């Protein structure tokens, strides 16, 4: 079965001429010979550009490869721009599996004799179908939300086996590329596939996705920026998730949004604000914000609100990453390339032995031509990509959390420019970042820290006298111990010095006695030397007085 799938993949790659994407000088003779031996599999799409051929090949190979192409489309540091743009067109729409089978999976997962025991109006026909799961509509039958319209997300049956098989083939192909391609070390195909495996396996766990949705909903509760549907945790399982059904306009349907009178400028700016709020305020961001997962509420078009779905992929940043990232952005705004270089070294993203002056010069070389353009023509996401490319030349290791961030930022920027082409993402983001930095470093940060720690301090305040007494008592005991230890150390050093001196004397006397004996000196001299040797050896083992 594995060989059959490998042949199918090989045939697809050759039919679309993907081997031509690799320069001939990079391919060893064995690979070229193998290509010529498969003469009955010619390139049938010579009239199409390379990027389109790659996209069509991935679509024909199925959902696992489609998602892999979607992930690759965000790695502008690895692909040519035209290929990355073409891969961004990959659509995650596949033929649905039988609705009756989905109903059986739901009943089994929830332990229901019949789906009618928990839901009314279950739709056997799926509302939507994607590579990993499909969605059915229903109405809750019981509980405080009885009558609420919901969607039930169901993982495709037997999808794990197909995913594991294709992932193993991807890993084999990645190993071959890493070994034979001259640029394999920089492209890191094995690391890319490993990253993809983790992302894909995470998406298979709907209980994890439900938890992500609950966290995001709590972060944006009562927010005018973003609405996250309610998740019904009682019905969440690893392969089933039940969530509130939303009614919104796909964010990519610009014509409908315009017809509804949506304030497009405000909508675009709010998209940027949602992103930076998730990253810098919450340290927890939706990392799959492509147009298929984002909708716009039909209510209040003059004050538009986003609706989000599909929370299988989320990103997190620790406090240090957030601060360094914000400082990097602000340094870029101010064209302070020295600061950018130093921040990369300080954060540990670039090794400390790297020459900061050389790194600063490389960053300036990349960025100054970009900054000569009008701000509205500059891609913020591409600046970030160029920065990572340059840093990688200076031994910067791939930071998984930054890759997700880069991917999400490219989505957000593309979305913003689609909604409002005049969007100046830089000017929209800069005030937010400056305000966040002030809150982190200024007097507000001090007040917030005091406020956060106040309950703990109040709890410990009654214990302070006892803690202070214990501390002073302990200090007195520790001082006595330190003095005793110091005296013991001095004594030990004196003992060591005594033994060294008498040891040297003993050695000299033993050698002298031996020489006197060999050279047949007078017996009394030899005897005296021997006696002194014995006395010297005894003295070397004598203990020194501690006084």
UniProtKB/TrEMBL annotation:
What is one process in the GO biological process aspect for this record?
Answer: ubiquinone biosynthetic process
> Gene encoding this chain?
ubiB
A Pfam family hit: ABC1
What is this protein's name? Probable protein kinase UbiB
Q: What's any one GO cellular component for it? A: plasma membrane
Instruction: Identify the InterPro entries for this entry.
Output: ABC1_dom, Kinase-like_dom_sf, UbiB, UbiB_bact, UbiB_kinase
Q: What class of enzyme is it?
A: transferase
Name all ABC1 atypical kinase-like domain ranges: 89-344
What keyword terms does UniProt attach to this protein? ATP-binding, Cell inner membrane, Cell membrane, Kinase, Membrane, Nucleotide-binding, Transferase, Transmembrane, Transmembrane helix, Ubiquinone biosynthesis
The protein's role, per its UniProt record: Is probably a protein kinase regulator of UbiI activity which is involved in aerobic coenzyme Q (ubiquinone) biosynthesis.
């Amino acid at each position: 079965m594995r060989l059959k799938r490998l042949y199918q993949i090989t045939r697809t790659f050759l039919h679309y001429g993907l081997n031509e994407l690799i320069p001939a000088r990079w391919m060893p003779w064995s690979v070229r010979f193998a290509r010529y031996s498969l003469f009955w599999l010619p390139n049938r799409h010579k009239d199409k550009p390379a990027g389109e051929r790659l996209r069509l090949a991935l679509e024909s190979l199925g959902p696992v490869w489609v998602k892999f192409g979607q992930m690759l489309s965000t790695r502008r540091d690895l692909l040519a721009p035209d290929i990355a743009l073409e891969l961004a067109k990959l659509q995650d729409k596949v033929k649905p599996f039988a609705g009756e089978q989905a109903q059986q999976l739901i009943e089994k997962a929830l332990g229901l004799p019949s789906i009618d025991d928990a839901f009314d109006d279950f739709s056997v026909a799926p509302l939507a179908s994607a590579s990993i799961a499909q969605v059915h509509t229903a109405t809750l039958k019981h509980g405080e939300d009885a009558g609420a319209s919901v969607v039930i997300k169901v993982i495709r049956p037997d999808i794990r086996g197909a995913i594991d098989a294709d992932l193993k083939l991807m890993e084999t192909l990645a190993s071959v590329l890493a070994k034979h391609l001259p640029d394999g070390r920089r492209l890191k195909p094995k690391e890319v596939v490993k990253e993809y495996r983790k992302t894909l396996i995470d998406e298979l766990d709907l209980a994890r996705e439900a938890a992500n949705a609950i966290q995001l909903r709590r972060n944006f509760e009562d927010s005018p920026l973003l609405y996250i549907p309610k998740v019904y945790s009682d019905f969440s399982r690893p392969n089933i998730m039940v969530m509130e059904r939303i009614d919104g306009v796909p964010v990519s349907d610009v014509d409908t949004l315009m017809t509804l009178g949506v304030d497009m400028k405000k909508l675009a700016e709010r998209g940027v604000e949602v992103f930076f709020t998730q990253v810098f305020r919450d340290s927890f961001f939706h990392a799959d914000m492509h147009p298929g997962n984002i909708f716009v509420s039909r209510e209040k078009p003059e004050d538009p609100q986003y609706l989000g779905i599909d929370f299988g992929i989320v990103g997190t940043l620790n406090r240090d990453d957030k601060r360094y990232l914000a400082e990097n952005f602000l340094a870029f705004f101010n064209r302070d390339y020295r600061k950018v270089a130093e921040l990369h070294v300080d954060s540990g993203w670039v090794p400390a032995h790297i020459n900061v002056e050389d790194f600063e010069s490389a960053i300036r070389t990349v960025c100054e031509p970009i900054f000569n353009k009008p701000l509205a023509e500059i891609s913020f996401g591409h600046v970030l990509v160029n920065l990572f490319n340059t840093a990688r030349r200076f031994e910067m290791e791939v930071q998984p959390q930054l890759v997700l961030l880069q991917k999400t930022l490219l989505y957000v920027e593309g979305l913003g420019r689609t909604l409002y082409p005049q969007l100046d993402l830089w000017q929209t983001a800069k005030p937010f970042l400056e305000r966040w930095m002030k809150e982190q470093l200024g007097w507000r940060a001090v007040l917030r820290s005091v406020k956060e720690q106040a309950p703990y301090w109040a709890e410990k305040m009654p214990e302070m006298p006892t803690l202070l007494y214990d501390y002073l008592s302990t200090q007195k005991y520790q001082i006595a111990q330190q003095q005793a230890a110091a005296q013991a150390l001095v004594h030990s050093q004196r003992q060591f010095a005594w033994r060294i001196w008498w040891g040297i004397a003993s050695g000299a006397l033993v050698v002298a006695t031996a020489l006197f004996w060999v050279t047949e000196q007078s017996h009394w001299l030899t005897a005296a030397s021997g006696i002194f040797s014995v006395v010297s050896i005894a003295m070397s083992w004598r203990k020194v007085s501690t006084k």
